[in-house]
Amino acid sequence: MKKLLLDCDPGIDDALALALAAGSPEIDLVGITTVGGNVNLDLTTANALALREFYRIDDVPVTPGSAQALLGAGVRAESVHGATGLGGVILPVPVNGVTDGHAVDFIIETLRSAPGEITLVAVGPLTNIALAVRREPRIVEWVRDFVIMGGSYTRGNHTPAAEFNIKADPEAAAIVFGAGWNVTMVGLDVTLTAVVTESILDQMRSLGRLADLVVPISQFYGVVEADGGPAIHDAVAVAHVIDPSLLKVLPAVVNVETVGTYTSGMTVTDFQLDGKVPNASVAVELDVDRFWKLVMEAYGRLAATIA
Ligand code: BDR
Ligand code: CA
């Protein structure tokens, strides 16, 4: 089993990524931390709490973190995820609340407690991670692997140059990429191929109670691409932890643009190392069929648990 700490901003695809983790016997989810991103921190935290109970992973602590980007005003994505962050779905009001303390401390203490054992996965703006690494630089040694959904070497989505999670806090992303660890960057280049097609949606319809969530949020999700469905970006980062063979990754030097008028939030990716030391493993190809097989098997297990 791999221990996983998920920093997220649920968020529709965050919810779908969490369902993947919850339904995967390969994953031991040791914590969920929240950050303001797709919607504000109060909502991302409320959604994480509601999802924890809906998925019956009640023993996983949820700890809220940063409400604002380090410097800029930040950006939100209500137009994509809905006013509450979960499309039109209203989950039962959760019984249990958050764990005391701040996500930044939770991340540091959790990694400190098990050096070399925990994979940190960040699928929202990188504010919590940047603050954690600034406050305790040794987390780069303690973490087993560090994986983000964010960035791209080919295109943006929030702007032509910038992917949402990086654009939402470019200074945090710059700190994180420069922290001295290897960042596995699962960016738009691959996540845009993880599309909920009609046939996937049909499979989701047979998931019983879980279908009441995953079908409408997938339908609501506004990231419609050429081949007809929304891409569930964040789930690809979690899938990579479960089965690293799903993604082809290449070493690269990634720098984050923070000042460009048109390019702020761009992840400038240099695959031509020529002796330079890479700071990232960049995903360049996803085995889409095997990805969906993995996801639907996990959803099937989760559906049986929460039936
Ligand atoms: C990323 O932005 C958010 O809207 C999604 O949750 C995902 O993490 C995709 O660019
Ligand atoms: Ca997200």
Number of E-state strands: 9
| Continuous helix count | 13
Mean pLDDT: 96
How far do the termini sit from each other?
Answer: 24 Å
What ligands are attached or bound here? beta-D-ribofuranose, calcium ion
Highest CATH level, the class: Alpha Beta
Shape: globular
Structural class: alpha/beta
CATH topology-level fold name:
Inosine-uridine Nucleoside N-ribohydrolase, Chain A
Compact description:
This protein is of the alpha/beta class and 307 residues long. Helix content is 37%, strand content 17%. The chain contains 13 helices and nine strands.
Structural summary, described in words:
The chain is built from 13 helices and nine strands. With 307 residues, it is α/β, with parallel strands linked by helices. The chain has one domain: Inosine-uridine Nucleoside N-ribohydrolase, Chain A, CATH 3.90.245.10. Strands 3-2-1-4-5-6-9-7-8 form a nine-stranded mixed β-sheet, with helices on both faces. It is globular, with a radius of gyration of 18 Å. The model has no long low-confidence stretch (mean pLDDT 96). The site of calcium ion has 10 residues, from α1.
Layout of strands and helices, then pairs:
Blueprint: E1 2-8, H1 12-22, E2 27-34, H2 41-54, E3 62-64, H3 78-81, H4 103-113, E4 118-122, H5 127-135, H6 139-142, E5 145-149, H7 164-167, H8 170-177, E6 183-186, H9 188-191, H10 198-204, H11 211-220, H12 233-242, E7 247-256, E8 267-270, E9 280-286, H13 288-306
Parallel strand pairs: 1-2, 1-4, 2-3, 4-5, 5-6, 6-9
Antiparallel strand pairs: 7-8, 7-9
Helix pairs in contact: 1-12, 1-13, 4-5, 5-8
Bound molecules: beta-D-ribofuranose and calcium ion (CA).
